[in-house]
Amino acid sequence: MLSLPNIYFCIPKNDSVYFDEHEVTHMKVMRLKEGEIIEATDGNGGKYKVILKSIGKNEAYGNVLSYEFIEITNNKLVLFAPSGRWERLRWTIEKAVELGVDEIYVFNNERASRHYDDKQDKLELIVREASKQCVRYHFPTIKPIEFLDIFSLAPESTYILDFKGRKIPKRISKSVGIIAGPEGGFSKSELKLLKSKFKSICLGKKILRFETAIILSTGFFAMKLGKI
């Protein structure tokens, strides 16, 4: 019996696919057994129908019954999120993945000085689990960066979330970037630097927490770009 909507992350090799310890844990929670048919993805657009051959303690593998490549849309949504507290950042990443963000960059600045350079594996695991939950076959990329890296990574149509900004434009580009400041906002020098290249937009009359602002703006642009 095909187990849906649960999908699993796999590593393809020839006519077989392999599953790591995280996927084995998922399989045990779902009480899967050898011989069952599941759906899996490699996170790069591959959609696999797999019959499980072996479920070990830390690894599992199966044979590929069918394969399909899922095309990705040309529209791109990029998020620059401040390096806040872990639980809040984790929640923000999960929701951004669900809303169709293609690239997530976690930046440091004067008021968000936490560093996640040594948490790359944990960040990627959050993206993987969120992608599986909402059935995404293309996993978004995620990477910790420094504040100044934003300028080389941001699409041309990138917007700063700013309480004093203008209304969200009705017409948008096919590639959009969103820059969200930390809880205390950007410093005057940082905001001046950002505004020298990017436009600022306001989400309404209320001052929102950074994760709320990210979800609201991401949801709006995701709808416009057909990401959800």
Report on this model:
There is one protein chain. A hairpin with a 2-residue loop joins strand 2 and strand 3. The longest helix has 16 residues. Helix 2 packs across helix 3 and helix 2 packs parallel to helix 6. With 228 residues, the chain is of the alpha/beta class. The protein is built from six helices and twelve strands. The strands form two sheets. A six-stranded mixed beta sheet has the order 1-4-5-6-3-2. A six-stranded parallel beta sheet has the order 9-8-7-11-10-12, covered by helices on one side.
Features of this protein?
six-stranded parallel sheet; about 230 residues; elongated; six-stranded mixed sheet; 12 strands; single chain; alpha/beta
Secondary structure topology:
Blueprint: E1 2-9, E2 11-13, E3 16-19, H1 21-29, E4 37-41, E5 46-55, E6 60-69, E7 76-82, H2 86-98, E8 103-108, H3 120-133, E9 141-146, H4 150-153, E10 157-166, E11 175-179, H5 188-195, E12 199-201, H6 210-225
Helix pairs in contact: 2-3, 2-6
